[in-house]
Amino acid sequence: MESSSKVTLFEDIFEITALNPDGFKFDRVNRLQATGTTFECDLLLDINSEIYHLMENDRFTLVLASTLHLDGSPADHLSYVTTAHTGSEPTLADNYEYVMHGRVFDIKYQKDGTVVLAFSYGGLLMRLTGDKKHLNAIRPDQRLYLLLKKD
């Protein structure tokens, strides 16, 4: 079996600096503003607050992965859901508390070497901004998984 590092496109620990920073509050959704502790990326992330609770100053690990299969084999969302319900095979998701499947819908490269990535997870949005050398594995229109766990 290959290492899960073949599956992982990005990983860092983030600290939440603000909850709903724009003052908007939606039913069942919180927008997190956070800063990465290793790569110093800036993150805005919408999460379903009914099923996963994070507060200001909480720390969490965020992983972006191309698949949930530990051997790196490609998978679509439906095959993961089927596997998760049968419990027949361990997946990357087993080590995390909150998982979403979505896609990259915009990438903007700045002159200073920064990249701004925009993702949609079924209408829940994420913006990740940081040095392109840490985010270069992520491609336009790529489908990927977001995995979170509290630290």
Automatic annotation (TrEMBL):
It comes from the Eukaryota. The keyword Nucleus applies. The keyword Glycoprotein does not apply. Keywords: Nucleus. One of its GO terms (molecular function) is DNA-directed RNA polymerase activity. GO terms for cellular component: RNA polymerase I complex; RNA polymerase II, core complex; RNA polymerase III complex. SMART domains: RPOL8c. Its main location: nucleus. Pfam families: RNA_pol_Rpb8 (PF03870). It is found in: Nucleus. InterPro entries: NA-bd_OB-fold (IPR012340), RPABC3 (IPR005570). GO terms for biological process: DNA-templated transcription. PANTHER family: DNA-DIRECTED RNA POLYMERASES I, II, AND III SUBUNIT RPABC3. Belongs to the eukaryotic RPB8 RNA polymerase subunit family. DNA-dependent RNA polymerase catalyzes the transcription of DNA into RNA using the four ribonucleoside triphosphates as substrates. Common component of RNA polymerases I, II and III which synthesize ribosomal RNA precursors, mRNA precursors and many functional non-coding RNAs, and small RNAs, such as 5S rRNA and tRNAs, respectively. This is DNA-directed RNA polymerases I, II, and III subunit RPABC3. It comes from Entomoneis paludosa.
